[in-house]
């Protein structure tokens, strides 16, 4: 007659192996998570600027007023042409800022860009390009979207590749 052993519980070896596997998974996934967060931050910044530019374009059409977009290397601001006389080609002191303070850019733009959105929603200068310096991030994540290409009639997000912003 064969006697059955009572196998209830874990041995110390089984417990050490399980803890080792969980530790390895946590370390590996921690590095991946850092990359995901970096990509998300870059893409979020590009999408926020895209949404603000689109909103300014719609406001220019609805209010029949020029809007001025000033993108610096570390922040950006959009102004509505409320200074008298109306119809200036550059932002002046009496224009109304859409926000109380300029919106900061976590990833700096490679160059300052000033644009005018006219009452028909057309953007000048044509074309304009906003590219973000993603190498400012120590992890250098490879985001799917890291630039904005602006033509007189279209605003597109894209990926910087080969010296140009390829639309996504």
Task: Describe the 3D structure.
The chain has 168 residues and is of the alpha+beta class. The chain has a single domain (12-167), classed as minor pseudopilin epsh fold, CATH 3.55.40. Helices cover 31% and strands 24% of the residues. It contains one helix and ten strands; from the N terminus they run H-E-E-E-E-E-E-E-E-E-E. It has one helix at residues 12-63, and strands spanning 67-71, 75-80, 96-97, 103-104, 113-117, 123-124, 128-131, 147-150, 155-161, 164-167. The strands form two sheets. Strands 1, 2, 3, 4, 5 and 6 form a six-stranded antiparallel beta sheet that branches. The protein has a four-stranded antiparallel beta sheet with strand order 7-8-9-10, covered by helices on one side. Strand 1 and strand 2 (75-80) form a beta hairpin. The longest helix is centred in the first third of the chain and has 52 residues, at 12-63. The radius of gyration is 26 Å and the shape is elongated. The mean pLDDT is 83.
Core attributes:
168 residues, alpha+beta, minor pseudopilin epsh fold, 1 helix, 10 strands, 31% helix
